[in-house]
Design goal:
With 342 residues, the protein is an alpha/beta fold. It folds into two domains: 10-245, Aminopeptidase (3-Layer(aba) Sandwich), CATH 3.40.630.10; 263-332, OB fold (Dihydrolipoamide Acetyltransferase, E2P) (Beta Barrel). It has seven helices and 18 strands. The strands form three sheets. Strands 1-2-3-5-4-6-9-7-8-10-16-15-12 form a 13-stranded mixed β-sheet, sandwiched between helices. The protein starts with 9 loop residues before the first helix and ends with a strand.
């Protein structure tokens, strides 16, 4: 069929920055409606919305060079438009930073995924975008049951990783770590989940903190240019994603998942900052208790537990930002349908 909404596709239209994106709507034969809200913003409303309907945000491209999740969303939305995927849940597809993606860049002025708290900062391209994204999320989630709100913010890692796919569950006071959410990860063969121990300023944290959404940052493979991602390695996750939005997850089997707790967050606090390990160290590389990880000015940075693993190490971040997470494996259980650990 001829797609009346896009000249090329959801993704590639968003990247043509000198061409305006006009709002548009298409009703499918199933009765579902596809609404183009703006550049990189498409809402899919199922034929029937009830009190049980999930309201799911699927976002990608917070970092412009993390392209595999963008390609996944592009493929899924194309199949929705050609009616080979019958959506049963209310969905919002988001490509968050098309300008950075078009420039093959992680960001323009600063890291967008550090701008979703209330801290006042100088204006920048990313600050403007964060305000728009927060408004879009509020509009999507308002007037729907808190228990039905989901947000999967999808990324790709800068470096190699012992776990090819993993997720980070933000720390908030609301019950946002449901058995159903963890089951989705297992059905998508996501290899590990990190349970954060402190508030953050990420996009997924924003949705969990302010709207009680079942929200995750999901890391899918490694950064690669558009067209060079090995999406075959993400087949299990793609099937689970399709199952989530079509309410057809029951046929997928849960796979084992490793669970980690965050033991410490290392922030860069001075110009004289560096790690002792190699720049290309893999995510989830482990260290022993007392091993020196690096330095921050005159302060030495130590591993605080045996088999403490490093994730997201980046000694080039701005002063005051997270330079690494340190995590340890942990045994978990469910209490009142929420995953917890001792």
């Amino acid at each position: 069929m001829v797609d009346p909404l896009f000249r090329q596709s959801f993704l590639y239209d968003a990247l043509v920055l000198d061409r305006d994106i006009h709002p548009g709507q298409m009703q499918l034969s199933s009765g579902a409606c596809v609404n183009v809200l703006g550049r990189g913003l498409v809402e899919v409303v199922p034929p029937r919305v009830t009190e049980e309907t999930k309201h799911i945000i699927l976002s990608a491209g917070i970092h412009g060079d993390e392209t595999a999740p963008m390609e996944l969303l592009d493929l899924i939305l194309a199949d929705i438009l050609n009616e080979t995927v019958a959506v049963k849940e209310h969905c919002l597809f988001m490509l968050c930073h098309p300008e950075a993606t078009a420039q093959h860049s992680r960001y323009i002025d600063e890291n967008l995924n550090r701008l979703f708290n209330k801290e006042q900062k100088e204006q920048s391209k990313e600050m403007q975008i964060s305000q728009v994204l927060k408004s879009v999320v509020q509009g999507f989630f308002e007037s729907v049951p808190e228990s039905n709100r989901w947000h999967l913010d999808m990324h790709s890692s800068i470096r190699q990783s012992h776990h090819y796919t993993f997720a980070v569950s933000p720390k908030v006071k609301k019950p946002t770590r449901s058995r159903e959410l963890i089951s989705f990860l297992q059905k998508g063969a996501v290899e590990a989940v990190l349970l954060a121990n402190a508030p953050a300023s990420t996009f997924s944290w924003f949705s969990a903190e302010h709207f009680g959404a079942q929200a995750l940052t999901v890391e899918l493979g490694r950064v690669a240019p558009l067209g060079q991602n090995d999406l075959i390695k993400l087949t299990s996750f793609e099937l689970a994603l399709r199952g989530l939005i079509t309410a057809e997850l029951s046929h997928l089997e849960e796979q084992p998942i490793e669970t980690y707790r965050v033991t410490q967050t290392i922030k860069r606090m001075s110009e004289d900052f560096g790690f002792n390990f190699a720049q290309d160290v893999e995510n989830f590389t482990t260290f022993e208790h007392g091993q020196v990880l690096g330095h921050d000015g005159e302060k030495l940075l130590f591993a605080k537990s045996d088999d403490e693993a490093v994730v997201f190490a980046n000694d080039k971040v701005a002063i005051g930002q997270r330079a690494a997470l340190m995590v340890c494996k942990v045994e978990t259980r469910y209490e009142e349908d929420q995953i917890v650990y001792d």
